[in-house]
Task: structure prediction
Amino acid sequence: MIQLENVSKRYLRKTALTDITFTVPPGSITGIIGENGSGKSTLLKLMAGLVRPSHGTVSFHSKKVTRQIANQVAYLSERELAYSFFTIGEMMNWQASQFVDFDHTLAHEILDFMKLDPKTTIKHLSKGNQARVKILLTLARKAPVILMDEPLSGLDPMVRDSIIKGLISFVDFDRQTLVITTHEVDEMEPLLDQIIAIRQGALIEQIAVEDLRSREGVGIREWMNQTYTKATNH
Amino acid sequence: MAVQYDQSSPIYLQLAEKIRRRILRHELDPGDKMPSVRDMAVQSNVNPNTVQRTYSELERMGIVESRRGQGTFITENEERLEQLRDEMRQSQIASFVEGMNEMGFTSKEILSGLTHYLEQHEEASTHDTT
Result:
């Protein structure tokens, strides 16, 4: 469904990604893992149409991904919310004005689930609740593709747990496909169908998590320890 | 909080094992309806696709049945559930014995140790309740 073919991305003097090819099947959850600076976020931005490949093609349902894909992709960025002077309710309305697939009923269900008050101003929210608002704004869109850049990063365990539960509860797997970049592999692992592991801009493995466990008898973290250390010794 | 899974085996099998144990403990009875895939996924903090796989595995083993449009139910085949009890007892005993053998204990030592342990344990639990 989402397909990358021989994708490379070069910025002026730096190569971010080299010759990446993979497919994300519909209705699945894919985790993109790798060290800091390995190119995870760039990969996600390519799929969101926010960055153009220097080489190769990124396609969605066999159509080339461009900036226009934004109406089919709910993208959660690593950055903070832009309009901190808005209340949560105003933020929801703004999101609805930008994206026709925003579902108010679903948004209110998530609001209740996350125990958020729509009258609160964004800048008065704790870091954890700001993260919850970002999740809400993303999941309330009935977009066929959801891309999340480090949704758990820097959050306490309670918030991380509520975000994971939120994902399981509100993503419609019959209609939506999820791709997440993450460092929190232990917590994300039970959620992931497959992982895409990258290292210094190159793809080193694409594998189903359950296959990893039955084939190697290890989870993601242990596998990463083994694989990434080995690669360093070369 | 988050349910823990160990790293060494597939999550869908671990989840299937947890469900089989709940059946033996009668937390789930013959004919009971299993939670929907989504609810089970939320309860267990796993991907709904994994739960689907767990349910298929349990169905393949004859422990649950899916009824079209109604959901998944624990089998009412008592014979199969009795057999499940046996299987699970056997496999637990097998891994215990394997561990004891690795440490060099003989069958006799295992038996006497187990008998002694159970006697003490029973004594302790009767004291607790009185």
